[in-house]
Design brief:
The chain is of the alpha+beta class and about 160 residues long. The protein has one domain: Clam (outer membrane lipoprotein receptor (LolB), chain A). About 20% of the residues lie in helices and about 45% in strands. It has 2 helices and 11 strands, in the order H-E-E-E-E-E-E-H-E-E-E-E-E. It has an 11-stranded antiparallel β-sheet, with helices on one face. Strand 10 and strand 11 form a beta hairpin. The longest helix has 27 residues.
Length: about 160
């Protein structure tokens, strides 16, 4: 009897975990988002919009400064609108693992380079190469929150809301 209860509990937990990931993946299926980023120990809120396309990511920062990023394959084109400067550089997955997760527009459950742990209210994704941990959670099915520490150990929170 104990074995049946344990098996039932595991199956229910697995269904709930897949449901949590499915909810996040359905949210990421949209193409356009408002974007806010808050960095620990800073009063600045970086805001703009994020567009996820199947071939590229476009991030436009509107406040507190104006700049944009076009991310395609393994290149980032940075455009500083305030100073009329543009630069393109190559990046690797180990430098920005969040890009490879977001570019797929889902949390890939079959990606061998990631460890995925689902808890009641969030999904933790660890990049095996960099050991960087990303916490994904949905707030009231309207806001996706992505929390992580950058390469300097500073906590960051990104808030995405769907745009029509």
């Amino acid at each position: 009897m104990y074995l049946k209860a344990l098996l039932f509990y595991f199956l229910c937990f697995n269904i709930f975990a897949n449901s949590q990931i499915d909810n996040i993946n359905n949210f990421l299926d949209a193409n356009r988002f408002s974007y806010e980023q808050v960095t620990e120990n800073s009063n600045d809120v970086i805001s703009g919009k994020l567009i996820l396309d199947t071939l590229q990511i476009y991030l436009e920062i509107i406040s507190p400064y104006k700049e944009s990023y076009l991310i395609s394959k393994n290149f980032i084109t940075y455009n500083d609108i305030d100073f009329s400067q543009q630069r393109t550089f190559e990046y690797s997955k180990k430098d920005f693992p969040i890009i490879s997760i977001i570019s797929k527009k889902k949390i890939p459950q079959d990606d061998d380079s990631l460890n995925i742990l689902t808890l009641e209210d969030s999904v933790y994704v660890t990049d095996k190469l960099t050991k960087q941990i990303f916490k994904f959670s949905l707030r009231e099915e309207e806001t996706l929150i992505i929390q992580f520490k950058d390469s300097f150990g500073v906590g960051n929170s990104i808030y995405l809301n769907k745009l029509s």
